[in-house]
Amino acid sequence: MIKLYKNQIIILFLLSVFAPVSVVALDLFDSDDEGILWQAGVNQYFKYVKQDDSEFGKNEHPVELDEKDIRFALKALQYNDKAFLKGEIRKSVFSISQITILSKQIAKGLRLANSTQDIVFVLQGSKKALAVLTRKYAVAGRIFYKEGKLNIILGEYELARNDAFEKVYDPGGYRELPYNFNLGRRSKSSNKFDGDLTGITGIDNKRTDNEIRQDWIRIDVAVASKAYVTEKDAKENASTTKFDRKLQEESAKLAKQRREMRAEMARMRKQVKDIENNKAPISVKSIEERMAMLDQLLGKKLITQEEYDSKRQDILNDI
Known about the structure:
There is one protein chain. The protein is elongated. The protein is of the alpha+beta class. The chain has helices at about 5-20, 65-75, 95-110, 165-170, 220-275, 285-300, 305-315, and strands at about 35-40, 45-50, 80-85, 85-90, 115-130, 135-145, 150-160, 195, 205-210, 210-220. The strands form two sheets. Strands 1-2-5-6-7-10-9 form a seven-stranded antiparallel beta sheet.
């Protein structure tokens, strides 16, 4: 148990009363380390707990799920979010680093779990709050396998850390402040995650008493993984096809320009030669035409400056 001085207890009591609703309370007792799957600090772990509600029936544990399929399925887990000044955007429920940890621990945990156990987890994350600032947060929930699907109930979602609370508790910043997280429940929605999931095949929300539980996500891992890979490949192919098509169009355009330039050069050279071979008196107009053609040939870099000067002098000599 954490030892607290009298003044610290008073401060913590006042903060627990007057702190905003979004701030979680401090867990003053050591957590039970039995059944720990993975832990990194006080507030980041995976562990086994007893199933929270037996009325839903036992879990289908143990179960073998491919870690790679879980990772792809979690990447497919996205929702529509209305961002300020950007309209509706598509966001991932979990970050890439969180997905890496989740996929590994879920595969291992469900392979070893029994039918009356759930896996609860807490993961940390960070995201941009302002231009140069980041905000640290936590995601917490419950995981189990039932009815052929991976079930994730989110008890906390992007829960911000209370920096002020932590500084009061430990001004020197030597210890990590333990929090008491909502780990999700089958019987009651946490209302902490209300994102509308995008229409990815194999992913849906649980319905209980004709209510859609947005915090309770069900994933057919194999189907969702395949759908994600298919969509990803389609986007990459579409991008490649678009690039190739544009490249082909540019190549055809350049080839056409080169053909036109060669034809124009041949025509103008022929005209110059015909005028030079003409034995009739040279008119002022024909001289102007010859000069104009020379200017065009030089302007299009079809003849050199030396050729231009030589031909120009020949035209002047005919006057």
